[in-house]
């Protein structure tokens, strides 16, 4: 705990808070009237493999008396084994098959050697069942057979399509395995690919990692807010046919660490705004730093400190809410060795967005989902958790979130108001529902002031980006080809979908104000582009910067739950910068 600097005001008492403490109080001493901020702590979440981690601190009794249940996220043991697949013993042997693997000879027997061997052990039942069920290996297809009397109690064929060549496909394969395991109430699963012989060693490591990650994430269900829920049964996963050794074990451990961070990010986004306030988000960040205090430190700035830093743009958004803003800054420094790169990750942290006076109304406004408007901050804090576990050498990373709510009250920001960012630029607020960029403006300036050489911000920023790219793809905006190449390489390795969008400078004309330096929104046409151009005004020209609009992929509408999007790409990008 000694490595954590929790700063709430210049005149606040400094405090180190033991994890066993259930409440603590900060007093602002040298002012009148006295400002007292009380945090009461309840259990929020747990880290996979690391015991209890998250604890919610609430500035007041939670609206609706809702508290997340204290549910442990079960640990799934990941291991690599090199044995005869037909001899593996367990609940389900899951075999990934392409459409080519399902090719049969004239006698309707498999041509693929692994499938032929399994089918022979089963007396031809596998080939027979695949024909009867019209299983051809297409994506999304699965066939599970009970095979009593053999090593595996069930054998499942999982379709990979015409080919599986990237992390996205193999992660989906892992998720399909998790679904089959849930249906069968399996406690252990063996996973093998029907065809993997010609794959390079590096590719095998990446494939095994993607499959393991997909299986862990597919198994997880966020049941903290349900009165009754079933616990996942899956306890162990054996990766077969990829070899063994310390290199593969390290890769599987990396997949486990990053997956636990994604789960943490999902839990943050899933938590409703009456539970996850700005203060609670700040406490979550502080707890991450305390857990990994050998490499992470935390600074939490209150409204008065932000005022001293002239963050008028951020504070303008926060002004209407009874829940005060909390500016979060975590800093990662490796345990040893020189620092060769300084990076910053900035996340939009609106724990709820009503739209302000331009309130969200009408069909499709999605106001009931605006708890996910802090999805960018969840990605950044999830990445911080993973980086704290992985501890990459040679790189310093700043994790920055300007957390607040966008509400309506007599003290709130009005359409037509002019706010001043911490770099002195003035902004005419022509729409209070374009608030995320106002908070990010001061956060980006702060990131530049930390000496970051490269900055990535993530935000659920515009509906326009969802219209352009749909629900599964994030939009990328950057003037730097070098940074674009780095991040797209990291995204490909992580199985997350990005698409580069134009930064059309001529569109800036629509962002000009007659009375201030700029307005905060330029209208509906090209809305995602003008939003990115707005953010660009607050980044030092010497800094390589990227904006990622995650408004689409932050949420899975089918499952009505968060995705944890962005965390895996960010961690991989940082890892690629480590020495």
From TrEMBL:
Q: Which residues form the signal peptide?
A: 1-15
User: PROSITE patterns attached here?
Assistant: CYTOSOL_AP
Residue ranges of the Cytosol aminopeptidase domain?
Answer: 431-438
Query: Does tRNA processing count among this protein's keywords?
Result: no
Pfam short name (any one)? Peptidase_M17
Subunit field text: Homohexamer (dimer of homotrimers).
Can you say what this protein is called?
Cytosol aminopeptidase domain-containing protein
